[in-house]
Amino acid sequence: MEHNSDKNKGQKTPSSFTNDYEKIAAELAIANKELAFQNEEKEKRAAELLIANEELRFQNSEKEKRAAELIIANKELAFQNEEKEKRAAELIIANEELIFQNSEKEKRAAE
Fold this sequence. Notes:
Blueprint: H1 4-7, H2 14-110
């Protein structure tokens, strides 16, 4: 003769279902806490990246301003060099003129 307990072997009792659900609920609570923590960390990292991005934008802006200043300074230096070359050419001509004049004076003095 079969006993009722033999028939129920392998079948879950209401209390075992409750235990399973409690275990699953506990696991889900832990998983939710982990996800919440990960989301907080991602939000912190996103905020850090936004700040870093802002800093890079500022630095790029400053570099562009500095580059524009250097371009203007470079043009000014090129202009000054051209002027110096012209002045040097003028001085060479003036020096040759003085040499010629001195030579003429020496000739007249020798006469």
